[in-house]
Fold:
Amino acid sequence: MPRLALYSLAVCVLAVVAAVVSFAEGSFLGIVWVLLAGLSSNMAWFYFRKHKAEKAATAAPAA
Structure:
């Protein structure tokens, strides 16, 4: 798995934890954390799919 995908996945997990803690404390700042979790999960998905497509392109023989 590419390094950027792992980093953004870690940010996503940490943002979800921060959102849960914020909402548990009664703060609406958790909305910002939820948005950050959504952004970082999309980044992780993008980099994973990009790596997968590049891997498939290099494995396919040139015709």
